[in-house]
Amino acid sequence: MSTKDTLIRSYMAGAILALAAAFAVTIAVNTGNFLVASLLFPVGFCMLYLLGFDLLTGVFTLAPLAVIAKRPGATWSGVLRNWGLVFVGNFGGALTVAFFMAVIFTMGFTTEPNDVGVRIGHIGEGRTLGYAEAGFGGMLTLFIRAVMCNWMVSTGVVGAMMSTSVSGKIMAMWMPILVFFYLGFEHSIVNMFLFPSGIMLGGQFTWADYFLYNEIPTVIGNLVGGLTFVGAMIYSTHYKTSPKRNARSSVGVPAE
Fold first, then answer.
1. Greater pLDDT, 135 or 232
2. Where are the domains of the chain?
3. pLDDT over 70 (residue 46)
C-alpha cells in the first residue's frame, strides 16, 4: 500500500484499540470484575479488523509470510518499511486517544483523575517499574508475556481469514483475544495507550521507564511470538505440507 494508506489504516487501528482498552479498564473499575472487562475488550479488535485497519502485531506475522512464500513484489525491505509505518501510525492513534481520555478523566486537567484515571496510572507503574525492580526475572516475564500475547492475537487474525461471514470472523477473533487480555499478556499497541495515558494522569514513572521497561521489550516479544508460534507454524504445516505417512495405502497400496 501507499505510505498514506498505511499510515491512515494503522492510525485508526491504534485509536480504536486504545478506545477498547479504555472501555475495558472502565468496566473493570466500575464493576470490579476483570472477567467481564476481558469478555468485552475484543470488540475493539473486531471493529478494526472488519474495517480493514492494520495493527503492528498482525503485520509482524503476515508480512514476512509473503516474502517467505516468494509472492511477487514482496521483499524484506518492504516488510521493514511496512512495520515502521504501522508502528508510527498505531502510536499516533493510541496517543491521540490517550490524550482525549486523559482530558475526560480530569475534566480538562482541572481536577484530579477519576477512579479510572487513577487505575490507569497504577497499571503503568506496575508494568514498568515493577518489571525493572524484579531485574532479569521481571524482564524475562515481560518478554514471555509479549510472546504469548501475539501468539494469541495473531491466531485470531489468521482465524478470521478462515471464515467468509462477519459472525464467523468475530467468533474466531474473540476467543484468543479474550485469552490474552484476561491472562495479562503484553500487547505493544494496547500499551501505547495505557502508558502515555498513565503518565498524563500522574503515574509515577517516566517516558524512559515506559520505553525501556515495557514498549521496546514488548515489541520484540510480539514480533517473536507472531513469527514463531503462528507464522512459521502455519507456513510449515499448511503452505509446506509434508507427504502423509499412509499415502500409499490411501490409493490401494498397503502401507509399509
1. 135
2. 3-240
3. yes
Cα 174–chain centre separation? 13
**Fold adopted by 3-240:** Glycerol uptake facilitator protein (1.20.1080)
C-alpha 84/C-alpha 91 separation (Å) is: 11
Largest CA distance in the chain: 81
Q: Which pTM was predicted?
A: 0.91
CA dihedral 48, 52, 55, 61 (to 10 degrees): 130
- Per residue in 126-175, pLDDT (tens digit) is 999 999 999 999 999 999 999 999 999 999 999 999 899 999 999 999 99
- pLDDT at residue 86 in the model: 98
